[in-house]
Amino acid sequence: MKRSLVLEIKETLGYTEEVQRCDKCKYHEEIENSYVDRMWDDYCTYSNLGKFTVSAEAHCNKFEPKQ
User: Among 6, 8, 32, 64, which lies 20 to 30 A Cα-Cα from 38?
Assistant: First the structure.
């Protein structure tokens, strides 16, 4: 297959070599746990209704890399 066709297919699929994990997303925020000293919780700030806890290893279709 021609390289240009392969690149076009990958672009259409949204293919990426990097793993799109929550902890690499611009909507990810680490907030200090109020109960356990030196522990951080992962939150998603995408929704304007409020933030919610997430797993750092998870992913969703709203992923945008951190700048």
Answer: 64
